[in-house]
Amino acid sequence: MVTQPRSHPRYGLNALVAFAAAVGILILMNFLGTRHFWRLDVTEEKSQTLSPKTHEILRGLQDLCTLKTYISRDLPPEMLPSRARIEDLLREYEAYGGAHLLLEEVDPGSTDEEKQKTQSLGIQPLQFFVRRNDKQEAATFFAGLTVSYGGKTETIPVIQAIAPGANAIDLEYDLTQAILKVTTRTPKKIIFLKGHNEREMYSQEMKPLREELEKMYDLSDLNPNDGKPIPEDTAAVIVAGPKDIDDVSEYALDQYLVKGGSLLLCLEAIDTSNERMPPSPQTTGLEDWCQSQGVRLLSGLLRDEESPKSVPLGPFMAEYPYWPLARRDHWDRDHFILQRLQSVTFPWVTGIELLEGKFACPPRALIKSTEHTWERHEPFNDLQPLKPIRVDKNDFRQFTLAATASGKFHSFYADKSPPIPKPPEGPDAKPPDPLPPPVKDGEKEGRLVVVGDADFLLADTMLGWPEQGRPNNTPFVLNLVDWLARNEEAAGIRPRDITARPLKIEDDETLFGLQATTVYKVGGIAGMPLLVALLGLVRWLWRRSQTNRFLTRLAIAKAAAAP
């Protein structure tokens, strides 16, 4: 029997058909991949995958949404990996948005005219020092984005994920929030209470919080001591560190909650606002009202010996036990507010006691301290972080730091007469109208959050410090406001905490007779190449056995065919 040589035309035709089939399969897979995006993410926080809320928002687009990126082409080499990850993320948006999402790349240009045009959109230039021609020189780059929908445009001035080492998925929050903002007709209203020595909404220390909330909400402040009710279309009211709230304002808050409103009460029993003076006790004016809802504010500062926060102390970082760092092990993980979060810092916090009794909406603990926390009372003239303090371990216990309640609330003023507004000053001032009688029981669901601290809203804890590498309390505070404002879809796209997962190895632990740390290090370096080599060897042996079987069958066939 004569066999045809490998150079026979039939072999060339077969090879050509196989090559064409492979190319066709690749084209088909690429086509299907653009229509049906899928990714396997094995991280605990799903930190490399778009959230289900983003999928839902993109698939719910009714009109064309255009994303335009303005990223300079001549980025420094160290930023190119970040740019590639951002482009992958945007293509994922394009895949889920389908025909209703258009992705465009716009070159900001290199001429002054093109740069001015880019800046007119609100995209800010970034300045970095790069090495060119063996010299260190300053260069300007752009990395911004615009979202357009239905004649409205929202700008992301700086894509923070472009920074070297940044996580590209953090762009998801800003981008999806921008899409929500241009697709939502009327933003919800958030009111900050003022007039009672609260943290001012427009102060510098509240700027980070204000800037984050303005991305999604319409913000304003209000002092209701003139007897005017809080507008019913207000999504939530934030009361940040009040002192001696008057009865008229308390009545306004009470009626707003009973009618189905949402309150965030950040209450402080200890005044720590004056840096030149030691902390001192203070009253909020809401003590009796809170107790009527099942919550009582304690009177001392909490010191957590197990989980203190690291704070800057001159050029160094020091653990400060009066800034407890609440972690996932000590909070209600099932609550919407705390999903996908890792830690929250509460500076100079006061504990909250949940009272026993029959309440219309019984409160529940949202966040607790560790079991190694104790309550310090006056004097507070020495709160140095490095000074050791002797404490009786019998004083250690868990304290509630934040509590929530929801449902149809019962009015504190149900059996009381409404307070009388203070008459305005001036000879021509008209006496105020009497307040309407109270609504005693709610007909709609209200929401209430009580926190024994207001400093967790301020810049130091909202932004953290450089050693953290990312915002600290920002996701928690925004989740808090979103839950109160019934805007749960926004919290599902918050920046996710990426937590280190170090191996816990004892010093004397061994594996295979060797020190465990050495085995893990060598395995991490050489394990993958050895695994690939082993798979290659197995495949080679398998193909060799298949070839031998084929040759054996061929020889048997030849022998049977021989005369």
Q: What is the helix fraction of residues, given as a range?
A: 25-40%
The largest beta-sheet arranges its strands as 7-6-8-9-20-19-17
Shape: globular
Number of helices: 12
Q: What's the β-strand tally? A: 22
Strand content: 15-25%
- Could you give the distance between the termini? 12 Å
The biggest beta sheet reads: 7 strands, mixed
Give the rounded overall mean pLDDT. 83
Account of the protein in words:
- By secondary structure, this protein is α+β, with helices and mostly antiparallel strands.
- Helix content is 29%, strand content 23%.
- It contains 12 helices and 22 strands.
- The protein has helices spanning 9-35, 52-59, 80-97, 112-119, 171-183, 207-214, 247-258, 287-292, 459-463, 474-484, 488-491, 516-561, and strands spanning 65-71, 101-106, 125-132, 135-149, 152-156, 189-193, 218-222, 234-240, 262-266, 270-271, 280-281, 295-304, 308-313, 316-327, 343-345, 350-354, 364-368, 373-376, 400-407, 446-451, 510-511, 514-515.
- The strands form 6 sheets. Strands 7-6-8-9-20-19-17 form a 7-stranded mixed β-sheet, sandwiched between helices. Strands 1, 2, 3, 4 and 5 form a 5-stranded mixed β-sheet that branches. A 3-stranded antiparallel β-sheet has the order 16-12-18.
- Strand 3 (125-132) and strand 4 (135-149) form a beta hairpin.
- The radius of gyration is 32 Å and the shape is globular.
- Mean pLDDT is 83; it is low at 466-471.
